[in-house]
Amino acid sequence: MARYSKKSGEMVESAMHREKKGTLRSGRSGKKVTNPKQAIAIGLSEAREKGAKVPPPPKRSAAAKKSTSTRSTAKKAAPKKAVAKKAMSTRGTTKKATAKRATTKRSTAKKATAKRSTAKHATTAKRASTRKVTGTAKRSTAKRATAKRSTRKTAAHHG
């Protein structure tokens, strides 16, 4: 008995051609697919969606699940809209959505950079304030020592 149907083979073949041509894109990020193995995986998943006979995807190990769950929590900071994803069915809206994604990525990058710069500024200000405090403490100690010396000298002259 065959594990894969003819339809699934055609879907994989189509995905491979699109990958070679440079038009195959990843589902989540929308990046261009350059890896043939990834193209096969995309073809198989498309075949599964259409209902073709394809075995279920391989089970992932606990370590693999753990690493992806930590990555996904970092991505959850900026939630994605499911409604917008459904609306992007035509080609023209896909281009707009890609441009929109790029701008949101840029804005989040800017925010991260701004956070870093403010954090750096805060630590620099802290260092400067501690330097000032230690500098004034050193000066006041030096003044006291000088005052003590001068009082000793005057006491020695008078006494």
UniProtKB/TrEMBL annotation:
Feature: compositional bias, Low complexity: 60-72
Residue numbers spanned by region Disordered: 1-159
Protein name: Histone H1-like protein
Domain of life (superkingdom): Bacteria
Biased composition (Basic residues): 73-84, 93-119, 140-159
Pfam (any one): DUF6496
Originating organism: Chitinophaga parva
